[in-house]
Amino acid sequence: MLCGPRSSQYRRRRGPGEKHMSGVVEFVRPAAAAAKRRAASGARRQPDSGRYFVQALARGLAAIEVFHDARALTLSDVAKRAGITRATARRLLLTLCDLGYAATDGKLFTLRPRALRLGYAYLSSMGWSEVALTHLRELAEIHGETCSVSVLDGHDIAYAVRVPATRHGVMLVPAGGRLPAYCTSPGRILLGGLPPDALDAYFETAVMRPLTKHTVHTPAGVRKLVDQARRDGYAFTDEELDYGVNCIAVPIRDATGAAVASLNLSAPSSRLRRRDAVGKILPDLREAARNIEMAIRNLPGRPMAR
């Protein structure tokens, strides 16, 4: 059976553009929308990049990124999603197969575990993932719920470190997984840390849609909640991403005070109500965030950067 890394997977009710796999609903972004999101998030060439831009490298990376929501793709799928010709896609994919990053059965292509090295290289370069993991484990043990550290990547949040719940009944997105920023508490924390012009650019290009009947998905509504999260120093979401799942998040700041990451705890809505989350869990989240910040600043040669 073909298999490969799957990112941005989460459970909820199916709707247009979704498929059902092994009892888990997996959201499938249309190719055009995915290309638009990549371009809007800064994947385009910079105006002055002609002196150094290596198009072959850019196309190779694009051929890897198109697997973000699919286990296996045909040659035509990759070409369409990456915006390249079939001939170019074939050369790139066969090269990735030769290098051990991909595999094929002659018709379908999949990523191989070696591709994880690209993501792990980023986590290792941050230096503070081990520090954060220690505090996440402590939080998860105390509260019995899933705890995570995430960063903003374009229109999404990407989970850098994640410790699953010690109790059952909460969805899991693995480290490296992605979720929309507009409807998640970590996303609203991180959007609140953007400079005004960057935040304006986000709202001009982000695609927002209701994932549940509780999802706030208008630019005005999301901006209001982002502003509130910035003022309050925390964000809480109530079944906006998925039915039955709530989440509370706080910022992790660098030496300048900028929010460069977010620490959050997620749990079934039956176990995580706003009043209890703010009164009982928020103080522990803030303490853990402060401990992570202090530990990071003491790491030699490992400054936290945006």
Structural account:
Keywords: DNA-binding, Transcription, Transcription regulation. Residues 114-298 form the IclR-ED domain. Residues 54-113 form the HTH iclR-type domain. It holds the Pfam family HTH_IclR. It is built from 10 helices and 11 strands. The chain has 306 residues and is an alpha+beta fold. The protein folds into 2 domains: 55-111, Winged helix-like DNA-binding domain superfamily/Winged helix DNA-binding domain (Arc Repressor Mutant, subunit A, Orthogonal Bundle); 119-298, GAF domain (Beta-Lactamase). β6 (146-153) and β7 (156-163) form a beta hairpin. The longest helix has 24 residues, at 274-297. The model is unreliable at 1-43 and 301-306 (pLDDT under 50).
The gyration radius over C-alpha positions equals: 20 Å
Number of domains: 2
- Say what oligomer this is: single chain
Spatial strand order of the main sheet: 8-7-6-11-10-9
What structural class do you assign from the helix and strand content?
Answer: alpha+beta
Give the name of the CATH architecture of the largest domain.
2-Layer Sandwich
GO molecular function: DNA binding; DNA-binding transcription factor activity
Keywords: DNA-binding, Transcription, Transcription regulation
Pfam families: HTH_IclR (PF09339), IclR_C (PF01614)
Region (Disordered): 1-21
